[in-house]
Write a structure and sequence with these properties.
The chain starts with 6 loop residues before the first strand and ends in a 7-residue tail after the last strand. With 368 residues, it is an alpha/beta fold. It has an eleven-stranded mixed sheet. The protein has a six-stranded parallel sheet with strand order 3-2-1-4-5-6, sandwiched between helices. It folds into two domains: 119 residues, Rossmann fold; 243 residues, Dihydrodipicolinate Reductase, domain 2 (2-Layer Sandwich). The longest helix has 19 residues. The radius of gyration is 22 Å and the shape is globular. Helix 7 packs across helix 9. 40% of the residues are buried. It has nine helices and 17 strands. The protein binds nicotinamide-adenine-dinucleotide (NAD). Nicotinamide-adenine-dinucleotide binds next to loops.
Length: 368
């Protein structure tokens, strides 16, 4: 392949989500969809009607040995992400794999090492990083408009759909964890409580609290049991406050509101002054996140760079999921996350004290 050649891509998994990836890749400059693969013939038939020139196969091995294919886009069930991605990297293909990168952080580390050894792009599909409101809030934060961040709240709740093979954290948190990491970086501790309210065998509600290095607090609310669908994030800073509501017609509102402590007039008497300034609704680009995501994947291959949704982001999201599950297992005990990545020790007594609270040292599950 010369730099000017378009990247030959194969899409694997053509159920609910895969056809959206095919549609966006089809329109991505610098890429051509050479092949598509699904075990279910009816998914292939549906695609053939729309894209008669794409080579179709039920066998993943056919895609691996196809020399026209230099990149594989995987949209299969979560349990298959690790084995399929591993085989694709071993076959020398660049890989985009839907979120989460894998089920365990040890698997993520192995995939990252493989990609690095072979000089291949490995990209997890954290689509929200490409959504115009999320990008706009990132710009607002990077410009320091909010001042010092005090706290943030993330709500992702709706009625259904109960999953049989994943709890509500694994189902819903990857989106908010990726947004949190993108905006604010890694928390230093986390604690989580949850319950299986209806007795389905899976947690259907979870509340996750996190502490950021600057002292800011983050609360995340996840549930399959809510009367209405809500995707709402509020960030409160010393300068301004921002509300991001994905389901609203005004997806971002920036409030010039806050509180200041005035100099005491007499001994010990602090006065608070509330500021209620303008509310701004920024104009957002109409770009489709998936189109931007596929373009970033293809450009990252051409330019030999890391995509915005990086492999480290993929690992960190899975680390946060595992830390939340560990805290859930210990009835909400805080889990310390500020250990250096790659510290593979498993602590003998995992409970120690921090500020009077028992804290679980988390070093991630040991490698198999
Ligand atoms: N980024 C997002 O917003 C978003 C949204 C929805 C789904 N997803 C992700 O997309 C992935 C797929 O979800 P879905 O809802 O489309 O699932 P789905 O069950 O509807 O489709 C998965 C397809 O993969 C096929 N498949 C499974 N194993 C295969 C194999 N070894 N070789 C070839 N084909 C195989 C199945 O036959 C099926 O058609 C999941 O990882 C999910 O997390 C992401």
């Amino acid at each position: 392949m010369t730099p000017a050649d378009p990247v030959g891509v194969a899409v694997v998994g053509l159920g609910y989500w895969g056809p959206n990836l095919v549609r966006n890749l089809w329109e991505t400059e610098g890429a051509w969809v050479a092949a598509a693969c699904d075990r279910r013939p009816k998914c292939l038939e549906a695609l053939a009607k729309r894209y008669p020139t794409i080579g179709l196969t039920e066998r993943f091995e056919t895609v691996l040995s196809d020399e026209r294919v230099s990149a594989i886009v995987i949209a299969t069930p979560v349990a298959t992400h690790y084995p399929l991605t591993r085989e694709a990297l071993l076959a020398g293909k660049h890989v985009f794999v839907e979120k989460p990168l894998a089920q365990r952080s040890g698997e993520c580390r192995e995939l990252i090492a493989l990609a690095e050894e072979r000089g291949l792009v490995l990209m997890p599909g954290h689509t929200f990083l490409y959504s115009p409101p999320v990008r706009r809030v990132k710009d607002i934060l990077d410009a320091g408009e909010l001042g010092e961040l005090y706290f943030g709240t993330f709500s992702r709740v709706n009625l259904g759909i109960h999953q049989s093979d994943a709890n509500v954290v694994r189902d819903l948190a990857p989106h908010d964890f990726s947004i949190l990491l993108h905006w604010l970086g890694e928390p230093i501790f986390l604690r989580a409580i949850g319950r299986d309210s209806v007795g389905s065998g899976q947690l259907d509600v979870a509340f996750i609290d996190m502490g950021m290095p600057n002292g800011a607090l983050v609360h995340m609310e996840l549930s399959w049991l809510s009367p209405t669908k809500l995707r709402r994030t509020v960030l409160v800073g010393s300068g301004k406050m921002v509300v991001y509501e994905d389901t609203s017609s005004e997806q971002i509102r920036v409030y010039d509101r806050g509180v200041e402590i005035l100099e005491p007039q007499s001994f010990g008497e602090h006065q608070l002054a509330y500021r209620t300034g303008d509310i701004l609704t920024p104009r957002l680009d109409p770009d489709e996140p998936l189109r931007l995501e596929m373009a970033d994947f293809v450009d990252a291959i051409g330019e030999g760079r890391e995509p915005v949704s990086s492999k480290k982001m993929g690992l960190d999201v899975v680390r946060l999921i595992e830390a939340a599950e560990m805290s859930l297992e210990f009835n909400g005990s805080p889990v310390a996350l500020d250990t250096p990545d790659g510290d593979r020790r498993r602590s003998g007594d995992r409970r120690r004290s921090r500020g009077g609270m028992p804290v679980l040292d988390w070093h991630g599950p040991a490698q198999d």
